[in-house]
Amino acid sequence: MASTADFRNGLVLNYNGELHVITEFQHVKPGKGPAFVRTKLRNIKTGRVIDNTFNAGVKVETARVEQRPHQFIYKDDYGFTFMDTSTFEQIVLPDAMVPFADLMKEGQEVTILMHAETEQPLTAELPTTVELVVTYTEPGLKGDTATNTLKPATVETGARIQVPLFIDTDTKIRVKTSDYSYVERVK
After folding, report:
1. pLDDT band at residue 145 using 50, 70 and 90 as cut-offs
2. Of 36, 70, 134, 158, which is the most exposed, with the fewest CB atoms less than 10 Å away?
């Protein structure tokens, strides 16, 4: 059991009989009335995100999960195949259990959340940023570095993101996985 003071991003709750991950939370203390916590919970099985408000101090049931490092090997008709880097065992996860999959390339290190009691995989989590090569974008003009104007670009995994005007094809960039945003150029 945990209280609302223990909430953090990534905490897994047993809410309404299903496992949910806290993706966002905010403690609110209004001027009038009791404090509460506003949360966004992502259902681990379906991937659906719901908004929920908890009263401050209320107890919620948490699920015991373990984070295990895995390496992405390939994708086929059955889903995404990952290999445990310590035991070399392979597991296959369906598309719904792999958020932001279009930013993942072969050989990518990911963390798979495993339910501690049942040893069942719950979801795959990419690192907060990934390094990818731009495969196509419109050419930029010399001197287009002063404004914050963005243009569309396609990266090596096929994902489309917005990049600054000075980024060209074959440039290696760092991308934030939570919102597909450009972070910086990589040397």
Report:
1. low
2. 158
